[in-house]
Amino acid sequence: MIEKVELLAPAGNLEKLKIAIIYGADAVYIGGKKFGLRTYGGNFSPEEMQEGIEFAHSKNKKVYVTVNIFAHNNDLGDLPEYILELEKLQVDGVLVSDLGVFSIVRSTAPDLPVHISTQANNTNWASIKAWTDMGAQRVVLARELSLREIKKIREKCDVELEMFVHGAMCISYSGRCVMSNYMTGRDSNRGACAQACRWKYALVESQRPDEYFPIEEDSNGTYIFNSKDLCLLPYIKDVINSGVNSLKIEGRMKSIYYVAGIVKIYREAIDMYYASPEKMDAQQKSWQEALTKVSHRQYTSGFFIDKPTGDDHVYNTSACTQTADFVGMVLEYDEKSGYALVEQRNNMKTGQRIEVFQPNLPAYEQEISEMIDEDENTILVAPHPQQKVRMKMQQPVEPFAMLRRDITTK
Q1: How far, in Å, CA of 165 to CA of 6, rounded?
Q2: Residue 401 pLDDT exceeds 60
Q3: Strand partners, 28
Q4: Beta carbons of 352 and 405 less than 8 angstroms apart
Q5: Pairing of β 203-205 and β 93-96
Q6: Which of the two residues, 222 and 162, has the higher pLDDT score?
Q7: Would you call 373 exposed, middle or buried from its count of C-beta atoms within 10 A (0-12, 13-18, 19+)?
Q8: Beta strands of 54-148 (E only): which ranges?
Q9: How confident is the model at residue 269 (pLDDT cuts 50, 70, 90)?
Q10: Three-point CA angle 332, 334, 337, nearest 5°
Q11: pLDDT tens digits, residue range 209-261?
Q12: % of the chain beyond a pLDDT of 70
């Protein structure tokens, strides 16, 4: 039996972990309250981590924990105890980037699988072999690699390889940046990045300190460091054929709607590759359309095909866009009555046309014809955040199905 590549999804909190797995991820990567690179990503307490790991393992899925800060001396005191805690929780691996952290993990918990983070800038087979020789079970490839380079690394190295296939791209080298540190005092390499690269910039000449020169056509400034988002879905065949073991989606700070939507699309693409690869080209258009329905910047293939050019950046805004709004999530469904219990997540009212997309059942569209609140009153609008309503469904739905409406529908 051919072993499929792993689909690895971000999980910024417990709800996102469960959604990622329900929508088809083979594994998730999470962060604890310290030692990770997403200080503002929600992150997991030990109790939440235990619940998440138990949930994942009950579904035969895996959980990896980020321990990938570039540590300073005062970070190291609590590290051994934390590593032992992760080992006790039976995590499936930890991601590290700092050589000192790697050494402490290996000596503290020799049987705990260690994955080398993309922050370690692994751009060649020699560095990957060096990590392998020291005991790493997996290496996350730098984003700055082409398909040809990845194939060469696969040819030379006998270790699990992981690569990013979707999500935000950083202007710095594999995420190692100091812009945030210098401009805000928030250390990007210790989890507190302020995303200073996404801000609006103008050019200033030293002898003219009060004169700001726009460096693009727009008079409001420019976002010269604002990369488009990575999307390798059109090249998924090449990605899998390159010999990598795990396909990684970026986005621990994204919403459950983002996680569900992106994971579902890549799950379908991977499964179709192994079952009916000849059908994939015909499916690309609908997959690409679905990708635009979740929050994103314009898409780029990054370094995978060729080196990025000026066309791989967005110069007029740092904002994300999407063509659909997430309006509700199904909590329960009663087959006899055809009603679903729905939790409101955005403006939702009768008469709106919505799309229902689900973990396993087919997606479909319908109009919201009726809503009943918890006091059994028929209502026209569900205005309260996370309000629970019963809604008549035109087709069967499953728990965690998501309702979305076109962004132009009010």
Answers
A1: 12
A2: yes
A3: 9, 63
A4: yes
A5: unpaired
A6: 162
A7: middle
A8: 62-66, 93-96, 114-116, 138-140
A9: very high
A10: 145
A11: 777 665 554 555 566 666 778 889 999 999 999 999 999 999 888 899 999 99
A12: 85
Regarding predicted confidence, which is higher, 409 or 153? 153
Quickly state the pLDDT bin for 190 (edges 50, 70, 90): low
Other beta carbons within 10 Å of 199: 14
Residue 41 predicted with pLDDT over 90: no
- Asked if residues 173 and 123 have their Cβ atoms less than 8 Å apart, the reply is no
Tokens of 174: 């594999």
Per cent of the chain over pLDDT 90 is: 67
Per the listing, tokens 């991977």 go with 270
User: In angstroms, how far is the first alpha carbon of the chain from the final one?
Assistant: 49
Average pLDDT (346-367) is 95
The pair of three-digit structure tokens given for residue 262, joined into one six-digit string: 């992106």
**Full set of structural domains in the chain with CATH:** 6-173+226-312 (3.20.20.70), 324-406 (2.40.30.10)
Give the CA dihedral 285, 398, 389, 382, nearest 10 degrees.
Answer: -10
Confidence of residue 132 (pLDDT cuts 50, 70, 90): very high
DSSP state of 8: E
Q: Among 80-84, 128-132, 177-181, 252-256, which stretch is predicted with the lowest mean pLDDT?
A: 177-181
Token couple for 187: 């250390």
Handedness of CA 182, 188, 193, 198 (dihedral sign): positive
**Which ranges of 179-316 would DSSP assign to H, the alpha helix?**
179-184, 236-241, 256-275, 280-291
Q: Which tokens go with 100? A: 């000192």
Token look-up 């992760």 returns 86
Above 60 in pLDDT, residue 4?
Answer: yes
Cα dist from 225 to 26, 124, 205, 315, whole Å: 33, 25, 19, 8
Residue 381: its H or E element: strand 381-382
CB 143 within 8 A of CB 165: no
Residue 335 and residue 226: Cα distance in Å, rounded?
48
The two beta strands, 62-66 and 324-334, are: unpaired
Whole-prediction pTM value? 0.86
**Separation of alpha carbons 407 and 405, rounded Å:** 6
Neighbours of 126 (CB within 10 A): 11
Integer CA distances (angstroms), 116 to 103, 137, 142, 353, in order: 12, 8, 10, 46
In one letter, which amino acid is 255?
S
For residues 45-71, b (16+ Cβ closer than 10 Å) or e, as one string?
Answer: eeebbeebbebbeeeebbbbbbbbbbb
